[in-house]
């Protein structure tokens, strides 16, 4: 069994223990494995625990993906636009227009798009902030959409992925038994 598949099955086991009234069928496991395989295992585990702490019911796939988005927002990986702008303002006196700012990936993409030197040397900071916030919100919306519906899953469903998926029975048979 692939490590990612096994980790997803383990996370589903955690969720099954937290929600004992929910029956995990082989088909349910199959769908969850297929739809969550793009998520890094540690983030999926965090999303599961986040959901356990915030909901009375077994999570849907979309709820686990939304939990991952919320965790990224809380941890600073996906800051709000105004927070990202604040980070940019903190970097200006630190590195000036000739240096390279140290910013989260999404914030850095906006900075590159607007131009670091242009941001640092602007004579109209309010206008630059407005441009930054607009572009940041657009990229954030796109990033959230990618998390909610990853392209690799859409390609798989459209028949672009020719690899043969493993049956859940095979996946479950590979798990170590605790008899």
Description:
With 179 residues, the chain is mainly alpha-helical. It has 2 domains: 3-75 and 150-174, no CATH class; 81-145, no CATH class. Helix content is 70%, strand content 0%. It contains 10 helices and no strands. The longest helix has 24 residues, at 125-148. The chain is elongated and about 65 Å long. Residues 158-162 have low confidence and may be disordered.
Structural topology:
Blueprint: H1 3-18, H2 26-36, H3 41-54, H4 61-75, H5 81-95, H6 105-114, H7 116-121, H8 125-148, H9 151-157, H10 168-174
Helix pairs in contact: 1-2, 1-3, 3-4, 5-8, 6-8
Question: How many domains comprise the coordinates?
Answer: 2
The 3D shape can be described as elongated
Strand content: under 5%
Order of helices and strands: HHHHHHHHHH
Write a short abstract of this structure:
The protein is mostly helical and 179 residues long. It has helices spanning 3-18, 26-36, 41-54, 61-75, 81-95, 105-114, 116-121, 125-148, 151-157, 168-174.
């Amino acid at each position: 069994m692939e490590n990612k598949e096994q980790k997803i099955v383990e996370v589903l086991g955690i969720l099954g223990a937290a929600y004992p009234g929910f029956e995990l069928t082989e088909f349910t496991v199959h769908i969850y494995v297929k739809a969550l395989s793009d998520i890094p295992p540690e983030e999926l585990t965090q999303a599961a625990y986040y959901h356990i702490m915030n909901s009375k019911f077994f999570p849907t796939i979309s709820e686990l993906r939304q939990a991952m988005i919320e965790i990224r927002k809380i941890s600073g990986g996906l800051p709000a636009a105004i927070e990202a702008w604040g980070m940019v303002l903190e970097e200006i006196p630190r590195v000036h227009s000739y240096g390279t700012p140290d910013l989260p990936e999404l914030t850095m993409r906006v900075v590159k798009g607007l131009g670091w030197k242009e941001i640092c040397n602007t004579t109209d900071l309010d206008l630059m902030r407005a441009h930054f916030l607009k572009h940041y919100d657009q990229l954030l919306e796109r990033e959230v959409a990618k998390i909610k519906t990853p392209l690799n899953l859409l390609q798989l469903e459209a028949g672009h992925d020719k690899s043969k998926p493993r049956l859940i029975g095979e996946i479950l048979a590979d798990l170590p038994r605790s008899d």
